[in-house]
Amino acid sequence: DGDGGGAAAPFPLAELRLRRVLRESARDKAVFLHGEVTGPSGEGTDALVILEKTPFQEEKLLDLLKKHTKLELQMHNDIYRTYHLYPPPELSEIKTTVVYPATEKHLQKYLRQEAHLIRETWEDYKNITLPFVQSQSFSIQWVYNILEKKAEADQIIHENPDPCDGFVLVPDFKWNQNQLDDLYLIALVHRRDVKSLRDLTAEHLPLLRNILQEGKEAIMKRFGVPGSQLRIYLHYHPSYYHLHVHFTALGYDAPGISVERAHLLTDVIDNLVLDSMYYQKRALTFALQADKMLFKRFQEAGRV
Amino acid sequence: DGDGGGAAAPFPLAELRLRRVLRESARDKAVFLHGEVTGPSGEGTDALVILEKTPFQEEKLLDLLKKHTKLELQMHNDIYRTYHLYPPPELSEIKTTVVYPATEKHLQKYLRQEAHLIRETWEDYKNITLPFVQSQSFSIQWVYNILEKKAEADQIIHENPDPCDGFVLVPDFKWNQNQLDDLYLIALVHRRDVKSLRDLTAEHLPLLRNILQEGKEAIMKRFGVPGSQLRIYLHYHPSYYHLHVHFTALGYDAPGISVERAHLLTDVIDNLVLDSMYYQKRALTFALQADKMLFKRFQEAGRV
User: To the nearest whole percent, how much of chain B has pLDDT over 70?
Assistant: First the structure.
């Protein structure tokens, strides 16, 4: 292969100066670096470097266990032991991706903003969050286009046309519909006066039960996936303030399914049965990036 | 540390025979192996071996870029290049966990199986789950070893010694403690009569508040991570029935943080304040693999 891709300058990885770590992922074993090398005319030129450890290869597992260069016992308790194992170089490849020269946009894309958990009481919601949400004029015209069949009409999987307790079920645009492993659909409610989980009371139980029941049936009928293999949940905060419910494959580790953002629809229904005002009483926790406007409002109010 | 944990036989990793790969995770760069070694009396004995590549350490990144043993260009297109980089052994640790001798249950735990959601009512818990849990004799000796300082005593980050409202905070054995990105600690309560979330009532509020408050303070003091960047939660079902609370870095996409398994400690506390019997009233949802005995019990009862 080599330099088949065009006129870009050669890249001297070993001469990279590390400017900053843009982002790390401990789970993915990956790191995103902003580096700099001296360019062709002597000036510092930005580079984006991504390092990612590679998955284990089944045919090399025995080699790994036998050909390690060092094995250190770290902990031993009852039948459990942990070790540090140091493999030889040929068994520990790192996938390295370089974007060079890199623009500011390349770097920004991978820059991690620090997030903090916010515990929003009902008073916080009324005094900080709601005024903020109302001051934003984030357009949700695309939602209305779907509900009015002005867009994606051919994508509708199921509709209950009731203006109060009805909804439309469509594939989420993140899902390419080629495989069921990452199945992802969204139910958008017809009524336009429910912004989020915070607005829900027992009044909305018929709507929520319709979504749960008819959504499961429609997905079983169209895709053959039973309700017991669907994760059905709301986000708080949602990314747009028109009530919607997510349906994802249970085996799919979708973004936004973690406990600080997702609320199972069955739990929401049960909580409203226990107490109609549950979501106007309970503090709700969510993560916010420190550069977000809403975070700054919570800071100004002394709540973070 | 060494062999402080008891009478278990030494484990000869290099002599492991590979029986099968139980599960692989390409995303996590981890593999779960069923192996066999020749035991003390010459018979084949099962072992569970988990290999997991470790996250990058920031202070070693420059070494990685400069001290690689080999660098192969794989692809070059315009400003994009990918390489295979082969680091020296000291820069490519593999975290190795061994359970030996391993029971069939240890192996089953990691064997990949199709999962279904179960919605467990309080009646289901009393009639199906509790009798099942009580019939199982999964040893939690390792928990008692920690609480009694017979193992991992040097690992304790914080202790509140009160027998009723006290707990011990230790690093989870999944965390190698080299970087904060995947920070993971566990609070184990001293009292031995609380199996899980299902047992909690307002009586346990002092204990839960101690764990929340003192756990955050101890982690801030030792690791410099503020409470707003910690995800603090219980699992339902837990993997062992002695009450414990997970502390993970908010930025860490740890296994078991999804909405169908994790319950934020702050939410648990609030729910118990709202209603002391909340967890004896509310149905709880969790995922169960279809080959699990508990799943079969729910099937026999016509509940899935």
Answer: 96
- Cα A273 vs. chain centroid, distance in angstroms? 29
Which of A63-77, A183-197, A256-270 has the lowest average pLDDT?
A: A63-77
Summarize pLDDT for A6-51 with one digit per residue, the tens.
445 568 888 899 999 999 888 889 999 999 998 778 889 999 999 9
CATH 3.30.200.40 matches B55-92: yes
**Chain A residues with CB inside 8 Å of B29's CB?**
28-29, 53-56
The CATH number of A13-110, from 3.90.1300.10, 3.30.200.40, 3.40.50.620, 3.40.50.1010, is 3.30.200.40
In this predicted model, what pLDDT tens digit does every residue of B1-30 receive, in sequence order? 333 344 455 788 888 999 999 988 877 899
Active site residue A116: no
Output the CA–CA distances (angstroms, integers) from residue A46 to A10, A43, A177, A196, in the order listed: 14, 10, 38, 42
Rounded CA gap, B188 and B243, in Å? 7
Interface test with A, best of B83, B90, B91, B177 (most A CBs within 10 A): B83
DSSP B145: H
CB pair distance less than 8 Å for B282 and A266? no
Of A11, A93, A260, which has the smallest distance from its Cβ to B86's Cβ?
Answer: A93
Nearest CA in chain A to B112: A251
Going by C-beta distance under 8 Å and a sequence separation of 6 or more, which residues neighbour residue B141? A78
Residue of B28, B182, B251 with shortest CB distance to A115: B251
Rounded Cα distance, A268 and A202, in Å: 10
> Phi, psi (5° rounding) for residue A166?
-105, 170
Mean pLDDT confidence for B262-279: 97
Top pLDDT among B153 and A169 is at A169
Nearest alpha-carbon partner for A125 in A288, A296, A281, A289: A281
Residue B3 has a pLDDT of 38
User: What is the CATH T-level fold of the domain A115-300, as seen in this structure?
Assistant: HIT family, subunit A (3.30.428)
Q: How far apart (Å, rounded) are the C-alpha atoms in residues A162 and A206?
A: 11
Instruction: Give me the interface pTM, i.e. the ipTM.
Output: 0.78
Contacts of B264 (CB under 8 A, 6+ apart): A259, A260, A285, B231, B232, B233
Residue of B nearest to A61 (CA): B18
Residue A292 has pLDDT above 80, yes or no: yes
Which DSSP string corresponds to A248-265? EETT---TT-BTTTEEEH
